[in-house]
Amino acid sequence: MSIDVQRRKSIQTMVLRDGPTDKDPPLASLQSDPYLRAKPVSVTFASQGELQESSILEPLEDVKLGRRMSPTFSITVGGSGKDASYEQFEWRSSHGKEIKELAGHTSGWKLVRLSEAVGEAGGSRSHRAMGCSSDGKEIVAGIAHNASWSLSKGFRIAFVGSGLTGVLGERWEIMTLMTAVHLWLIEFQIATKAIPIA
């Protein structure tokens, strides 16, 4: 897989491809404002290897600068037909065990599955079970930042819990990867004052 970022006027587009080159078919694209103004961010999934108007569009909400943000998205998980359900996920800034475990760093994001409780809410971070957020929800992915803010080193991402098992589905995996890269790009742009990046 590869990701390329392009900027045209007031739209920044990130395309995830099913291979290492720009000739490989797209899996999804994410469009955002390169100047990080509060505008909708959307992910479009490819249909038959092409990004089309009829492709499924999923919004990423609550991406705003100047305050603590917790971007959320909703997506169908668990297959198709009767087995599928529509669930909401939320990226939360984190300094927890899952992030330290991922890369030895203490800064990053965790993706919380809002519909699944796996433990009790509350309690200190040191006493909380691995994979459980402070409100008792399941953590399904994590991003650990590289302290150098280098484009060549980027960040580390891992699926955990049910996110690792594949039960949430390929679209969820693509949405998680696209939104993770987008969050990292936002933080990179802020940290390096590199707005826009492309």
Structure explained in plain terms:
This protein has one domain. It is built from three helices and ten strands. A hairpin with a 2-residue loop joins strand 1 and strand 2. The two termini are 20 Å apart.
Termini separation comes to 20 Å
Rg, Å, rounded: 17 Å
Number of helical stretches of at least 4 residues: 3
Bulk shape: globular
Q: Count structural domains.
A: 1
Helix-strand sequence: EEEEEEEHEEEHH
Q: In terms of quaternary structure, what is this?
A: single chain
Low-confidence stretches: none
| Major sheet size, sense and barrel closure | 5 strands, antiparallel
Strand tally, please?
10
What fraction, in percent, of the residue positions are helical? 10-25%
Region (Disordered): 1-31
Topology at a glance:
Elements: E1 2-8, E2 11-17, E3 26-32, E4 41-45, E5 57-60, E6 72-77, E7 85-94, H1 97-103, E8 108-117, E9 137-145, E10 155-159, H2 162-165, H3 170-192
Antiparallel strand pairs: 1-2, 2-3, 3-4, 4-5, 6-7, 7-8, 8-9, 9-10
Region (Disordered): 1-31
Structural key phrases:
198 residues; globular; alpha+beta; five-stranded antiparallel β-sheet; 3 helices
Q: Could you provide a short overview of the structure?
A:
Residues 1-31 are annotated as: Disordered. The chain is an alpha+beta fold and 198 residues long. The protein is built from three helices and ten strands, in the order βββββββαβββαα.
